[in-house]
Amino acid sequence: MRNLFAYILKQYFFFLFLLLEVIAFSFVLQNNFQRATFLSSTGKITGTVITYMNNITEYLTLKKANDQLVNENALLRNRLPESNIIRDKEIYYSRDSIYRYIGAKVISNSVKHQKNYLMLNKGSRHGISKDMGVITSEGIVGTVVDVTPEFSRVMSVLHVNYKINSRILKNNHLGTVEWPGNYYRHGLLVDIPMHVELFPGDTIITSGNSLIFPEGIMVGTIDEYNILPNEKFNTAAINYAVDYNSLYYVYVIINLKKMEQMRLETNSANDQ
């Protein structure tokens, strides 16, 4: 006790200052205007801190939310009419194509080479195999060319050897989309019949004449139609629907009838 009393005497000015501060602060709070101002300022500071902490929390949980969103979108795609088997009494029949979708994240990508590829964070362990199509909600991306248990390698649409079996939406005429190897937003629609007339903005979709992509996946729109004299077919410059430089999440397409279709194609080839 004697030591405590000696300490207080030694720190007399500090404790006196603290006492005066408390008295002054109490007088301030007794004034309604000053009290309101103080509480308002405190509320703003508290609100700012809470908002800041919420932003940090939202940022830290953003990846998980995005992953959940992609998986939910894949689930919704799997529930589309063309992806379901329909039961009519005791007879089962199906749409022309049955597909399933697996959401995946792009972990590497290129657009500046003549032969561009992507890598996805899912592989054979997740049900992905070679020759599966890859799309986004905006359109076509490419085809899986190699897999490991955890990863997939995808040949991009931006590959000079990549060809897309396509269809002109307004008249159903077939064509082929290629990448000329320059700007990543522009492609080329070739093998257009001479009598077909196209205009800027006309839509190009996948034809469905392959085992990889269902019909109707967006490819792009016509930018410029080129009439080639003395040729059997014309060409058209197109704007790709997908911005391949900003790919982040994609969907891998599983064709559940692929083996059956391949068997028929093999039988047809053997008969020729």
What does this structure look like?
Among the domains are: 2-60, no CATH class; 163-246, Rod shape-determining protein MreC, domain 2 (Thrombin, subunit H). 32% of the residues lie in helices and 33% in strands. The chain has five helices and 14 strands. It has helices at 2-10, 12-30, 32-60, 62-78, 258-271, and strands at residues 85-88, 91-94, 99-109, 115-120, 133-135, 140-147, 152-159, 163-168, 174-178, 186-193, 203-206, 218-226, 233-240, 249-255. The strands form three sheets. Strands 3-4-7-6-5-14 form a six-stranded antiparallel β-barrel. The protein has a six-stranded antiparallel beta barrel with strand order 8-9-10-13-12-11. A hairpin with a 5-residue loop joins β3 and β4 (115-120). The longest helix has 29 residues, at 32-60. The radius of gyration is 32 Å and the shape is elongated.
Short structural description:
The chain is of the alpha+beta class and 272 residues long. The chain is 32% helix and 33% strand. It has helices spanning 2-10, 12-30, 32-60, 62-78, 258-271, and strands spanning 85-88, 91-94, 99-109, 115-120, 133-135, 140-147, 152-159, 163-168, 174-178, 186-193, 203-206, 218-226, 233-240, 249-255.
